[in-house]
Amino acid sequence: MSTSPTVLPLNTGSSIPLIGLGTSPLTDEEVAPAVVTAVEAGYRHIDTAARYGNERGVGEGVRRSGIPREQLFITTKLDGVFQGDDRAIGGLDESLERLGLDYVDLLLIHWPLPQRGQYVSTWHTFEKLFAAGKARAIGLSNFKPDHVATLVREAEVLPAVNQVQLSPYTPRLAERRANDLHGIVTESWSPIGAGNDLLSAPAIVAIAERIGKTPAQVVLRWHVQQSLVAIPKSANPKRIAQNIEVFDFELTAADLSSIAALDKGPAAGVDSDVSGH
Ligand code: A2P
């Protein structure tokens, strides 16, 4: 059976694996074995954040897995505590210390917090961290199109990714268009709906039954087939393995349009003009 690409190019010249392990809300103790299982199942991309409180466990899992560091793609994020006044410099140092690493592959501004007006100055600090090689790529999370436009106007280094809450219920078409315009890869958090009823939606179940895949695999295939990087969270070894087995089948155009009909509109998702940390 043919295999589709498992990575996507970034505007840094590097690439990002299309499936990564999401780690929120796993604790240090829970995440370390999940990372080991994921690496054994073929994952090379792990997503964490300072705010998740599990970077030590992620680092422990990476070491236990025995995989060479350079084969892994590790993302962390800095939340509002680290916005402004070059606070991200100390913030990343603390994250690296917890992870036991000397660089991350991707560093994200976790939330724009537009009411504070600090995301552009924070971005300039991120540019310094990129230049220093402590973050091999820098990007955004939860940025809406107008936040992206404001940041890009001031940026010397363009964001490599924008990670947003995105699933068939909340497909974020406007965000994807804005990201595409600037060559920014869109990443999906809560890609399989974070435990809502997406995986039992009749349109998803019907496709899964027809092609002999699970509903989660259908939804994750929907992401990667549209060049969306997805970071499903699971602590269950079987589901961790299942979630990366999405590169040996394709959804048809009819499948994609029946999934498109699940769109609940922008109001169904988080609004980062009013929420964030
Ligand atoms: P679990 O950790 O027990 O596997 P998201 O990444 O969209 O936020 O979704 C995470 C939720 O989906 C978790 O509750 C996780 O539970 C569950 N989950 C992860 N993978 C699968 C799967 N393949 N099938 C069903 N549920 C899954």
Task: Give a concise summary.
With 277 residues, the protein is α/β, with parallel strands linked by helices. Helix content is 38%, strand content 13%.
What does this structure look like?
The chain contains 10 helices and 10 strands. The longest helix is centred in the N-terminal third of the chain and has 14 residues. It has a single domain, classed as TIM Barrel. Helix content is 38%, strand content 13%. The mean pLDDT is 97. The strands form 2 sheets. The protein has an 8-stranded parallel beta sheet. Strands 1-2 form a two-stranded antiparallel ribbon. The protein is globular, with a radius of gyration of 18 Å. By secondary structure, the chain is of the alpha/beta class. α3 crosses α4 and α7 packs across α8. Adenosine-2'-5'-diphosphate binds next to α9.
How far is the N terminus from the C terminus? 44 Å
Strand order of the largest sheet: 3-4-5-6-7-8-9-10
Q: What small molecules accompany the polymer chains? A: adenosine-2'-5'-diphosphate
SSE topology string: EEEHEHEHEHEHEHEHHEHH
How is the biggest beta sheet arranged?
Answer: 8 strands, parallel
Helix share bin: 25-40%
Mean pLDDT score: 97
| CATH class call | Alpha Beta
Low-confidence stretches: none
From the 3D structure, determine the CATH topology. TIM Barrel
> How many β-strands, per DSSP?
10
Q: Please name the CATH architecture.
A: Alpha-Beta Barrel
Task: Indicate the radius of gyration in whole angstroms.
Answer: 18 Å
Number of domains: 1
> Helix tally?
10
The CATH H-level superfamily is NADP-dependent oxidoreductase domain
Structural class determined from secondary elements: alpha/beta
Portion of residues in beta strands equals 5-15%
Morphology: globular
